[in-house]
Structure formats: C-alpha cells, structure tokens
C-alpha cells in the first residue's frame, strides 16, 4: 500500500539575517557605569586625593575640588577615574553645585587627553550640566585657556558663561568662606608667592 509523503520546506539559512542587538542608550550606559562605580573597588583613585567635596559656597551649594597636579595621567586607569567621578558626583549633582579646579604647578603629565574629556562629557547626563552653576579655574595657564576655549566653543557651549579663570585663590573668597575651602598647602604657598600674603587678611565678608 502506497503512502503519501509530505514535502517539508526548510528555511534557507544562508539568507537569514540575525536580528541586530539593540544599541545602548546614553541613559542605559550611565546607569551601567553608576552600578559599576558603586560596586567596584576605586580606592586606587580615591587614595590620590585629586577629587573631593570641600564644604559649600555662600549660597549653600556643594563645592567640588579638583587638584590638577595630583592627577597623574600616565599612572592611573582613566576608566576607573571616570567611575570614581561618577560615584562622587552623582549624589551631589541632584542639586546646584560648583567646581573649583586648581591648575597650580600642574604639568603636561597631568593634562588629561582630550579624547577622555570628550568621553566624560558625553557620558554624563544633562543634570551634570544643568546644575553646574560655576566652574572656577585657579592659576590658569595657556593650556587651560586654550582647552577651555576649544571645549566651550565646540563641545559644551552651554557652560561657557559658567567658566571663570581666576589668578589666585583669594578670588574664590567672594563666593565661598575660607573655612569652607580645603586645598593642599602647596596651592596656598604658590599663591602667596605670586599674589602676596592675602591669606592673613581677616575674612569679614561672612560677618
């Protein structure tokens, strides 16, 4: 007795195109980095002491301090440096804040590559830019002025008006009390050398 056979058509695997993997959104990337920042050991970066919060300004806004001379580009993992920055700043940037960057006695070995700065700026969400109310650069040099001009012209024009170059530490005292600003001794010693003994004048603006 003859039996009928049913032909089964198999798919042509040679023309099968795999479904593309969904690209990670900027928000998803930041959340992933934030989870890593909270879970990984970042003592290698925190121990350097180049980035920390130092009190508040006269409007009660947290002051984030960055010491350029203590940022050894060739000796640290820049990915971990980004993670530490996120770990420190994420709770701070939920409200208004200011940054004081001290370029005092920094050299080319402390200059972060522009590619890394661009990556940092692209990774950080809008709240970082929106809530940043001032970015002070103390003891600027030709390098900081050129980098500031390029960065705020082509990468971050929205923060251009927030960037202020200051020739000395004492210029910060109009916006924050002396006892709220903690900086290494070499910063104040250098400042007294080039600007005079301003530190021995009483701070009357807070009274």
UniProtKB/TrEMBL annotation:
<dbReference type="InterPro" id="IPR001251">
    <property type="entry name" value="CRAL-TRIO_dom"/>
</dbReference>
<protein>
    <recommendedName>
        <fullName>CRAL-TRIO domain-containing protein</fullName>
    </recommendedName>
</protein>
<dbReference type="Pfam" id="PF13716">
    <property type="entry name" value="CRAL_TRIO_2"/>
</dbReference>
<feature type="domain" description="CRAL-TRIO">
    <location>
        <begin position="38"/>
        <end position="195"/>
    </location>
</feature>
<dbReference type="InterPro" id="IPR036865">
    <property type="entry name" value="CRAL-TRIO_dom_sf"/>
</dbReference>
């Amino acid at each position: 007795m003859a039996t009928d056979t049913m032909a089964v058509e198999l798919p042509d695997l040679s023309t099968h195109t795999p479904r593309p993997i969904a690209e990670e959104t900027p928000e998803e990337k930041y959340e992933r980095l934030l989870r890593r920042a909270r879970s990984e050991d970042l003592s290698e970066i925190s121990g350097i002491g180049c980035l920390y919060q130092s009190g508040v300004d006269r409007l009660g806004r947290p002051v984030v301090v960055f010491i350029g001379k203590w940022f050894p580009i060739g000796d640290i993992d820049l990915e971990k440096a980004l993670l530490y920055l996120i770990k420190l700043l994420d709770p701070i940037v939920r409200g208004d804040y200011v940054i004081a960057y001290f370029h005092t006695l920094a050299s080319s070995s402390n200059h972060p590559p522009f590619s890394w700065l661009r990556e940092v700026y692209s990774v950080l969400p809008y709240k970082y830019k929106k809530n940043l109310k001032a970015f002070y650069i103390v003891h600027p040099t030709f390098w900081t002025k050129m980098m500031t001009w390029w960065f705020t012209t082509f990468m971050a024009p929205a923060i251009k008006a927030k960037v202020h170059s200051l020739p000395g530490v004492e210029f910060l005292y109009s916006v924050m009390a002396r006892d709220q600003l903690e900086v290494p001794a070499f910063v104040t010693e250098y400042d007294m050398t080039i600007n005079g003994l301003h530190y021995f004048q009483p701070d009357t603006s807070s009274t």
